[in-house]
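Sample entry (299 residues):
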Amino acid sequence: MCSVNPFARASEVINSSCQEDCGNVSIPYPFGIGNGCYVGDWFEIVCKSSNDSYDLGSLKPFLKKFNREVLDINITASTVRIKYPIFSSCTNGMERTNNSELEKAPFFFSDINNNFVAMGCNNDASMESIFPDHSISYGGCKSPCDRAPFTYGSSCNATNCCQTAVPSHLHAFSTVIEPKNNGRSDECNYAFLIDRNWFETKFTKPNPNMSVPVVLEWGIDNASLYSLPTMKNSNLTAILEYNGSMAYYCSRPQITRMGDSSAPRCRCNNGYRGNPYLLRGCRGILYLFRNNLFNPFNS
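Predicted structure, serialized as tokens:
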């Protein structure tokens, strides 16, 4: 297994007093805890006690800007996994909930890693525009009514459950739950985004108060871009183009109809490993191999 740490610690370059983790979660730059340890407000992490009954008092990291617990951060994939609430309706009427925390953020819900799930008897659930007058549907599904027991997410589409893909670069949406001819007031219907892999292997039974893992993708917002250590005294135009002679490069994803997702993401170039957001954060593989920091033959 590769022993190089792509989540290079901010304290190595940014500030020696930066807290390097919270609980069991590593906090790599551009995220950080405390002044001078993160690139911008969206990336500020606070480390505080959990309110979860099963883990009461344990220290957990939260994205301060919208108060969501962080489960892990992946610099290489430009993802952060958070705990996100599921939405429920325990009546026979239509329910609509807006999810707009990311509307102006350099984060969006990952279409690669998440699915939209509906659970309940004849539950017609959908993702729609947060602006009702626009009447834009981003997708949805209707869960079949079946009294057989639900096991894991891998059995979804068979027992009171359906799932569908998430559109790309989705920043904000409304969750709509609309029971169809259910007629039962003793059951709740659910709709939620969820990490696809976690759903298929670990999810068992929903309840109105639970939160589940959801994967966000991210880039560096324009306001924070010039604060990166790698951007100081650099030619931004050159950095935003693939340059094989540099240890790292940054690129802007395309803008889509779902919103402006042009926030740059940085990568270590071919032949390098590490954290491209830190000054000298990308190290050549040959250098790492010679210093016993990287072994491509380990599994």
